[in-house]
Amino acid sequence: MQGWAEHMQNAVQYIESHLTEELEMEDIAAKVYVSSFHFQRIFSALCGFTVGEYIRMRRLTLAGEELTHSDARVIDIAMKYGYDSQDSFSRAFTRFHGISPKAAKELGAGLKAFAPLRIKLTLEGGMMMEYKIVEKAAFTVMGVGRKFNADTSYQEIPKFWDEHYQSGGGEKIMGMFGVCMDGDGKQFEYLIADNYCPCLDVPEGCVTRTFPAGTWAVFPCRGALPDSLQKVNTMIWTEWLPNCREYQLAGNYNIEAYLKGGDRPEDFYGEIWVPVERV
Q1: Is the predicted pLDDT of residue 197 greater than 80, yes or no?
Q2: Are 255 and 149 in a shared domain?
């Protein structure tokens, strides 16, 4: 656990050292020795906000400090902290601080501050987590996909599911799986998918994705959605993974399997599948 906390803190320190430069998610994730795909999920689960949100809040904090303690122009501060125009900077600054950059220069202006993170993992009592390690043959899914930004995915993916069913998409893709796959480090692909049957044509607008044979950690989820899935997902990254000594993350994808519904929300049973390999 101690090593895991140190790696996460190294990632935070790297961010802090490069706040006035262009930050690449791959470079940050390299400090934790995981892919950018997995790092963003781990960071969000541990901290309660995304990597992008943390970077924005820290930059706006430092920008506020500079505006109140220097004669620098607003446009120069905006460019220094990664904004391409004074207008976009002013909007973000006002949302965060509650006052405009111009007002921040006035004597006695009240600003908000978001302090640098200090990652510390502690044991607060035993927690039982059910899981199993299974070997799966290669398999293919078929579904409809969309690209999502990690910063907004928790809000946007449920809308994607609603749109899918409201548009009648459930007639061709029932939604047995929710599949997350790495994109370019900034966006990832999400599929509403079913098992693919090679004997059938792929419907218009659908794609197939194949996953290689390998080892998966399977975590049961019981109870009403989305709470049951979100609770288990958080526990995977904050409890199971930091304490796991035999396995490490493998492929840049994970799968939500929706296996059993029912008349009552509490009857739901699903699983989260995470690809792993022996250390």
Answers
A1: yes
A2: yes
